[in-house]
Write a structure and sequence with these properties.
Chain lengths: 115, 115
């Protein structure tokens, strides 16, 4: 148990729809990151939030957006879903100052299928 | 740019055998961090170890050991006396000093322990 919880665990959406995935970070953790993991691949960094501000973004289009709330929980929003967005979306949290080298704990992920 | 290569896509060994998972990384940064994660079928990434670039000491934790060699840019992971519960996908990851925690993952090695 890492203390990072994600919801929903599984969902199916239609191409063109929008989806919101949620993450509760481990208690005391102020940094949240989101990753996309396609089948058979390693996770790819989407973005990171540190104290409610985006603090780094990977190579993902603007239709991938996020939020971090004052309690450090977070949301990942994806608009105009495409078939290639089908993947496992992982949330990760840590207690560092937003910089590298901290131990990062992952949740169990949200499995998104776009049809 | 950073890159992590896990050349072994799949490995199968008989229970109680030792197995080594290879990880080769690329970065121009002198300060960086290396990680190993285990991903069981549930999807959650389980943290195993973090090592910074200035600490080349090998580490042992129970049946797990890690060999970090900067000269060959490798951070290999050995499981001694493997058990069926070790079956999972293992990921090596790299983080550099860019002001955020972005992890660059390899493509993973699927390890199957045959009883």
């Amino acid at each position: 148990e890492t203390g990072v919880t994600q919801s929903p665990t599984h969902l199916i959406k239609t191409r063109g729809q929008q989806v919101t995935l949620r993450c509760s970070s481990q208690s005391g953790h102020n940094t949240v990151s989101w990753y996309q993991q396609a089948l058979g691949q390693g996770p790819q960094f989407i973005f990171q939030y540190y104290r409610e501000e985006e603090n780094g973004r990977g190579n993902f289009p603007p239709r991938f957006s996020g939020l971090q709330f004052p309690n450090y929980s977070s949301e990942l929003n994806v608009n105009a879903l495409e078939l290639d967005d089908s993947a496992l979306y992982l949330c990760a949290s840590s207690s560092g100052q937003g910089g590298p080298g901290n131990t990062i704990y992952f949740g169990e992920g949200s499995w998104l299928t776009v049809v | 740019a950073q890159k992590v290569t896990q050349a072994q896509t799949e490995i199968s060994v008989v229970e109680k055998e030792d197995v080594t998972l290879d990880c080769v990384y690329e970065t121009r940064d002198t300060t960086y961090y290396l990680f190993w994660y285990k991903q069981p079928p549930s999807g959650e990434l389980v943290f195993l170890i973090r090592r910074n670039s200035f600490d080349e000491q090998n580490e042992i934790s129970g049946r797990y050991s890690w060999n970090f060699q900067k000269s060959t840019s490798s951070f290999n992971f050995t499981i001694t006396a493997s058990q069926v519960v070790d079956s999972a996908v293992y990921f090596c990851a790299l983080s550099v000093d860019f002001g955020n925690e972005k992890l660059t993952f390899g493509t993973g090695t699927r390890l199957t322990i045959i009883p």
